[in-house]
Amino acid sequence: MVVGERSARHEPSPSPGTAGRAGRAGPVGLLRLLRLLRLVEVPATVLAYAAATTGLALLAGALGHDVEPVPPALVGGALGVVAARPVRLFLEDRLSTGRAGAAPAVVALVLVTWLLVLLGLSVLVPAVSSSVVSHSVRTDPTRRRVVECTVLLAAVSAASWGAELAGWTDGVVPAGTSVLLGAALLVLTLPSLVNTAQMARRERAAADALDAERRRRVRELEHAALHDHLTGLTGRRGLADAVAGAAAAAAERSPSAVVFVDLDGFKEVNDSLGHAAGDELLVVVARRLAAAVRPGDVVARAGGDEFVVVLSDLHDAREAEQTAQRLQTAVSAEVSLAGGRTARVGASTGVAVATEPCTGEELLARADAAMYQQKRDRRARSAQP
To answer: Would you place residue 2 in the very low, low, confident or very high pLDDT band (cuts 50, 70, 90)?
Structure first.
């Protein structure tokens, strides 16, 4: 037992590289298999259709009908090319709409009609052809496509009946009976094209509605991520992007600036009137700050009672100082709150101007330091006798 345990402990473990290669072997092998299947999908589909049509021709011959197996096999192989998934997706992607949109349906209809005529099954042309054109209608459910497919369906049906009535082809059932049954099938299947188009349009409308709802929710989530939920101003995440852009675009002839705004006396409002009144005051202050700057400037709430204004493409540094003075004036005005109450706060501002490119963090730090320096200076003046 001891020897066994020791040998188990000393058994070499696979190296990380070997384990990684083993882990990748599965997905790589699966991808190679998928590529191989895509390469053989078209010829496999062609062989399957050719074999199926050959079997139908042999069955018809066994039932006493004079049907050569080779022509149906060739037509079935050609139909397999059109029906193969890679070819079908390519045609739908390139020719699904527009003037050439019905081209794949035309090719498929001609091949299906030819195959049924060779097998002596002209009576089935309307029913089988209807399923072929239904796919084209689902791809492009417009009235024009419905009319095109209806005309194509009627044309191939009439051509197959004419060939049988003229004696060019032999059918499983007498020519007159074949035409009568085929006409009945045609009348019964034509309304299905309209129904298919209506269903496809409803499905597309539902899909478009879901997509519009998804895009609306994405916009809401993006807005919530970039904006403050209380004031509607730009939030911390959006502020970082705005400051970084302004700092990078700063130049001597078009400076950028950041104004840091901190409310004075906000804590007293919160303590005396309550947090609901404090939130109401923040909303009013945010609205005043936004009204005191240019349309292209960014006003953000950094958190609590702190706001940041990002200024870009200024004429000079004095314009930033003038903006800071306007902001202080706007904030210091009395605020009317719910219930007939009023409140008043002040503002300490710090201005940082950049005349050459720098980092957003550097610009914010300078504005924050200037704001606290203004607070210290104000306290020092108020402490003097």
So the answer is: very low
